[in-house]
């Protein structure tokens, strides 16, 4: 890293990339990125060039000696990289549309991370990520893999179990969103509130909130109980329930505790508007229209409405802290190392870590209540079963993952939806078809 | 026990009692029961007398010096007892009808043990059982409590946590039914097949099957996958799924893995025939008509169709083994004591035990697969939450139990069903109304 | 086994063999041994023939169709065996003399099982046992290995970790001796006293004693505190200490809790009489003189004074229970399988097991007190380190085993004694010399 | 704390106090201590005044508005304090002399922390510390207790178990000394080396060393193996042993792994020079002569030779980080909270923590090797047994602590030394004499 940092971004043609570039520009003082390699595949070449050109204009405007490369040659990009970020989407948004549509058509929530949809995103993505890990071992052994491709939990568990790579971190914006929401509720700047998170990706809980050395968890639970859900009217966490729970669930927990409500809403919404994926596709097209504008030289405001904001910001923050050994606390996905008693020593968890030059080191976040342990174990075993299915291409292992997923709840639907999704994604799941 | 054994049976007016009496008669050589006290409450007086008289005729016909007492005075019956069996039903079958009807009316499986219905049966029953424990401490300190009232898991967890009583065992006929089914499949007498069970009540798994010192689990899984479900056509366990699981689930697992199928069937059936409880009520009435017949001097054949056969037989077996220190293996509900790694040392589990004069001692049954651990933890935490709600009468604690139950799956329904059931069972849930 | 049982006894020329033969004769009704193969090595040929002839006379007198074979061809003996017992002694008693003498010459207890002496016995024996396991996989895959060669703990841990053999059991007479002593104290026949044992070989504790369904542990501890040690005058367990401990230590625990006393006695005794091994050697010579007598046709009384009585009896009992699937309780060394919470699931422990046709199944024996956990962990890690050193022949690994042994207590002595023993046993430790 | 911080130092008349005062002066910018209350008992009044006056001169010279109070009224000092530090010595150095002399006279290492001497220091000190905790609950509920009185492990375990106080931290200078030594070996400034510590007080291990994001543990172990011990010639850790261990033991580990060597040295040294305590007493007297000098206005150089340097510095650092919520990493004694898998969730450990306004939060430090787990468990159970003996005054519980201590190794000596020390310290152990 002596002559500045080299970053390789796989899936560089993503609409998120301008945020990432913006993040590197803002942090240049502390994080001198000299080379940013945006990598994509043939099908994404057109978008890659649009994004690459916008990035070049942004860097130029900032007056920084950061070089932007666009390439279809992943190995070239990985060579000597210091950090590799992955934001790829195997099968593009069309695949996600199927992930949502097919389950919904059988009255089941697809859920792109911890549901049937998430399983299939995992089955498509894991082989690619493991391939990147193999290349990294050869081309940039000491680099860190920073993954923010979903399903982050299943993918990181796969990296943990099936690649030898220790230097790998998974990222999500759920924790930072919750931190901001809690600080706002308490009318405090973020840095004055100490919050502990523990759990799994999209299954994370706030286990403690402290202000001025005082435990204010009860107060926060009281406020949280009133909060209405952004997208769905009338759905709020019941306060009495939250008090008994003693921890604050994240937004994705609603799929389990309010599954019926969400399902009804999803079906109704689907009838009117199609899937969320279809909506995202439309937004993306609009964004790329914007990106083409040669007068645009910065991250456009509209990007924030895309959802998933702060992802790239979180990635930049993480990379910056590793590079500078700042030892500040961030919430990331990494190997538990004994901190969450509910999980095995070697399982991936999402929790508070201090970020050192040697990577994230988990920090005690207390115990999770027994009442949520069942759900936690279910999702962890789902992640493991999904990862195993992804690397073996074994039908029965994929069926196991479907069956133990708490959103599935039906053997006949598990089989039908599995069969339909395997067929629909055939092209991206060669491991399941080699065997037959 | 020097002058023979005294047994007290709480809920003695139950239609099951003739089977119990029959069991004691058959085992008289090894288990000399001199006094059998059948206890019931005022509302059950009439049935108690019918059953008591049948019991007396049965004993007389057998020519045994076993005295049958019928009484409404529980303390009198407990005095100096050696064994106390509990087969009571707070609120009678009418309460169970509500436990099933109310959830079903909201499209939810009531499930009389591990669902919302089971929670309410627990809330009504636990205070009574804890009361019996208190009386036993005073009147028959060294006696064993043998409970076969459902929900056995929640009740035994309550006894374990909230009474000081160590001498308490919970019983279910699911394991013995599975043992018989497996032996039949293998064309072997029961005693030649060594089967290990581990889990919770109505959430138990066969973890191993051995014949002639050979592990035949794979073979049994293969056979089990084909078995169709007695009551519901077309529902079979998928073989590939079972193979991946590596253990054999019990019949109650279908509520979780085939919840949708079961729910649809239950709703349809309900529309045509009313609840299972209503059907049972009819059968019971017919049984009592039979029992009245002064020429009937033995357990009638029809009792076997009642469901829950072998319960009483299992109870007699257990009592006989304790009395004789036979150290044979039976599957019962008792404190885990480290044998199932998935559960805490002090939690109640259902598993193989050797039955000694000092009670059941758990025997290693291997590990449960990770894929079922989530469900296991969910039900265990449900049992604990239910037990806590039962002793405190706290609304929020009952809500917690509803919310974490995997059959509920909806916050709004959790609240509605909870409220309706609390209202419907008001009379039997004074602990929830004292507070208001 | 259809035509009767074949047993192979490795180290068949041992002075213990007549007890084993006697055991098989006594149990012939239930355990029809048709062939007993006594195997030994060239150096033991003479003794093997003496013992073999005595065995033949014993069988003849009993009038049983049991054939006794003596052979130097181990593979011939293993072919098609149903049970293989190992009672071998690599380097014979002369090696044990060195195991005791060399440590003692540096003021350290050699201790033939859990001390430096035991380590070296393990280093010599483990490769031979693993070799037998390999042969068994080939020649008698389904046979059970019943090992009563010391150090049983370390050897069984080695079999567990470094052979694929699951069908292997370690035996010791300490538990049965303690059972008998306790029953005697309580004036009860053995079968009326229920005793639980937990721990490691030669590091086992009585964790519970029950009579007539009553916990009599306190009473037994009270009696045990007074018991004086057979061989050493004036050494008794302090009652107050035992009460605080809450469990009853075995005789080998004295090496740790009364190390200084034992060491002084051992040094003094050594000066006067030489090592225990030297004394045993003399006794053995006398025994073989007896065995030669063609008029001797049964196990001679003098054998009982040899020490280690009941070992062979325990072995016969175990084999008989496996063969007949009796499911009675015996204390053996096998994989813990979660029963002792203090040990890993897969570590070997000594504890109550039911003996089935599928081998021993551990039974809950309660928790060990925290106060002895340290010692337990130390010995378990010593066993593991010793086993690892034995299979690798790595000097540093052997040094680690020495250093963590609680009887060593000195780095300089650890090194000196290690070096001297490695040199003294060079002939039997090729794995340590190949490397240099 | 709005108007500056109030500190109460119990045992304020200690010779260490000037270092503490110096520490507060140096950090005044970040840690504005307005009141420092030095508390002592009647017997220490003279020294208290000497130290108090020196402190006043130091503050005056620094030109800071920090007020120094000296008092015998502990409650007055505690009232409204923000931090309470404890550096007291019940029975003064004369008691420590007995702690060392009596065991040594029986050929046993007294060892003032984890040996028999440490047990007695604990028995004398724990009741006083628990008394301070009680006063704090009343007079300064939200204050932090910072204890650097030995035996820190046993005392903190007592505070943890027998006071309700959560805000309590134990401190030792061993970790910072090791950190400095390792940084020096690597020729790096302290802040560039990331070191993880895990274990118990005076039983702590370095589990990892990282430089520039690289694991350099092997290199450090290699260097550490050569390091000779300061006070005892010729004693070095064997490199091969350390490599097998995989962690770096602290200096106190030599008492266990080189017990014989240490004991011999201690006995020889004792014959020539008396105990370490006697030497310390002489040094202290010289220090107080210096302190009396009215021209001395700063911490004298000679204090550093006293041993235990950096203790006070560590205390000031800790207090400063809590006050400013700096979230930097320090090694302290606090409740484990799941981070060290080898210890219970609620047991006190010594390990890396981030220091927040809410106190220390443990940070993952990896696993300890199995080979040291036995020793760790032994000392933890010794701490627990000692704490229990201290609060109950029960003779047998004290005997248990003696018996399980790995330095004792003899039942007869355990009893003799226990009896002699109980007699020698009678005055300071009223809890053991009330009962008789
Ligand atoms: Mn996310
Ligand atoms: Mn049942
Ligand atoms: Mn033995
Ligand atoms: Mn210290």
Topology:
The structure is a homotetramer of 436-residue chains.
Chain A: E1 5-10, H1 17-26, E2 33-39, H2 45-62, E3 67-71, H3 74-78, E4 83-86, H4 92-105, H5 116-139, E5 144-147, H6 152-162, E6 168-170, H7 174-185, E7 193-200, E8 203-211, E9 214-215, H8 217-224, H9 239-245, E10 248-249, H10 254-257, H11 259-273, H12 276-292, H13 311-324, E11 329-335, E12 348-356, E13 359-362, H14 370-392, H15 395-404, H16 411-424, H17 430-433
Parallel strand pairs in A: 1-2, 1-4, 2-3, 4-5, 5-6
Antiparallel strand pairs in A: 7-8, 7-12, 8-9, 8-10, 11-12, 12-13
Helix pairs in contact in A: 1-2, 1-13, 4-5, 4-12, 4-16, 5-6, 5-14, 6-14, 14-15, 15-16
The complex binds manganese (II) ion (4 copies).
Instruction: Sum up the overall morphology of chain A in one term.
Output: globular
The ligands bound in this entry are:
manganese (II) ion
Report the helical percentage of chain A. 40-55%
Q: At CATH's second level, what is the architecture of chain A?
A: Alpha-Beta Complex
- Terminal CA distance of chain A reads 47 Å
Number of strands of chain A: 13
Mean pLDDT of chain A: 92
Main CATH class of chain A? Alpha Beta
